[in-house]
Write a structure and sequence with these properties.
Shape: globular
CATH superfamily of the largest domain: ATP-grasp fold, B domain
Number of strands: 18
Radius of gyration: 21 Å
CATH topology of the largest domain: D-amino Acid Aminotransferase, Chain A, domain 1
Mean pLDDT: 94
Low-confidence stretches: none
Number of helices: 15
CATH class of the largest domain: Alpha Beta
Strand content: 25-35%
Largest sheet: 8 strands, antiparallel
Helix content: 25-40%
Structural class: alpha+beta
Number of domains: 3
CATH architecture of the largest domain: 2-Layer Sandwich
Distance between the termini: 48 Å
């Protein structure tokens, strides 16, 4: 087989070589971050010039590879639509734009969920919000096609109306009601519309605050039947029957779940590490198996009696260097693994959960879900941020 990979996620995370024999098959990497480091022997690679990672540029500059491809793999949220476009251009099997858009375009996602009766926050186009703005409340300006909370702004109706995206009716943005509550995420994969494996977790901190410089984590919790029912209904409404998912929902102060958003990929940060410890399943390899064969593992999860969680400290919000004063010995027996970078490879303004781009990340464990959450809170309360040069 000829396989082309749009390479953005660090190789050590996905380990494509475990799923694909690089000696038996022709495996070619288009490196979208400019760093081919760590690729296996025998792999061919090209560094994609900055600004040339869109479908049109890739099609023009790398037609020789793409026209011969039997599979095109792209597992970063930022590359799903690009890959879908390229598959259509070069008639490569796999997900096309009509498959990807419902789980990538948040406006379309919201619209389809509303049509299916899925409970979710209210939302408006920019024009609708300007025409009849609410008098009170808190709202979000959200980009349709971003990820990792990039570009989201929070505020009162007056503050939202003053946002350039709303005021100037910038394409690709909409307004959403802010619903307070506890944010859950559910990770796993589907097999013919049924769960092959699934794990529920709750955030400690939140993704929007991480975007602005606060640490983030999550801890696994027992499955909630109401949430899993809503998850299944939502993915059915969005047309996803197979493959991996990272689904987010809010449990309101009244105890009801409302849908927030979903993605047809493996969750970032330490999601896959914690998932593997809890279930015995490598979510990255399950995801790659589906991308290559159209099937997912048939062996069910073997759930551990223990619970796991992950945490990460950001560095993208600073222009100067930073470190953290972390004492791993304090968490003996609770800290499963960690990565401490005195000089993280973060780029100012580019949100990243990758271990190499953050000063501190890790995985914790406990005999109960509450123990995991308490450990995460303790890490955040006792780990000081230190500026460096």
């Amino acid at each position: 087989m000829n396989i082309v990979i749009l390479h953005r996620i660090p190789f050590a995370r996905f380990r494509y070589d475990l799923a694909v024999d690089h000696q038996k098959h022709t495996v070619r990497y288009l490196c979208l971050t400019g760093d081919p480091g760590g690729l296996p022997a025998g792999a061919e690679w090209r560094v994609v010039e900055a600004g040339a990672g869109d479908a049109r540029s890739l099609a023009e500059r790398h037609a020789d590879w793409l026209s011969a491809a039997d599979h095109l793999i792209a597992r970063s949220e930022y590359d799903l639509l690009t890959a879908a476009d390229l598959r259509e251009r070069f008639r490569i099997p796999g997900d096309v734009q009509s498959d990807v858009l419902p789980v990538r375009d948040k406006w379309l996602m919201r619209t389809l969920a509303r049509q299916a009766g899925i409970p979710q926050p209210s939302f408006w186009s920019n024009q609708e919000f300007r025409r009849n703005p609410p008098a009170t409340g808190t709202y979000l300006v959200k980009p349709r096609l971003e990820a990792s909370s990039t570009g989201i702004q929070l505020g009162t109706p007056t503050q939202i109306l003053a946002q350039p995206a709303v005021r100037d009716d910038v394409d690709g943005y909409f307004v959403e009601e802010f619903v307070p509550g506890e944010v859950w995420h559910v990770d796993g994969y589907l097999r013919d519309g049924e769960f092959g494996a699934v794990v529920c977790s709750t955030y400690v901190g939140d993704c929007l605050k991480f975007a602005h410089g606060s640490p983030l984590g999550s801890g696994q919790v027992p499955d909630d039947p109401a949430l899993l029912s809503m998850l299944r209904d939502t993915l059915t409404a969005l047309g996803q029957k197979n493959g991996s998912f990272h689904y987010e929902a809010i449990r309101t102060q009244a105890g009801k779940f409302v849908f927030l958003e979903t993605a047809s990929r493996v969750g970032g940060a330490g999601v896959a590490d914690a998932f593997a410890l809890r279930t015995g399943i490598d979510l990255y390899q399950a995801d790659l198996k589906y991308q290559l064969t159209g099937s997912v593992p048939t062996d069910g999860p073997q759930l551990s009696a223990r619970y796991y969680g992950w945490f990460v400290y950001p560095a993208h919000h600073r222009t100067q260097g930073m470190d953290v004063d972390f004492d791993p010995a304090r968490y003996a027996g609770r800290l499963s693994s960690f990565t401490h970078n005195a000089r993280p490879k973060a780029h100012a303004g580019q949100i990243s959960y990758a271990a190499g781009a953050t000063p501190l990340s890790g995985v914790v464990q406990g005999s109960t879900a509450s123990e995991v959450r308490e450990t995460l809170r303790e890490i955040f309360a006792t780990t000081a941020v230190v500026e460096t040069r």
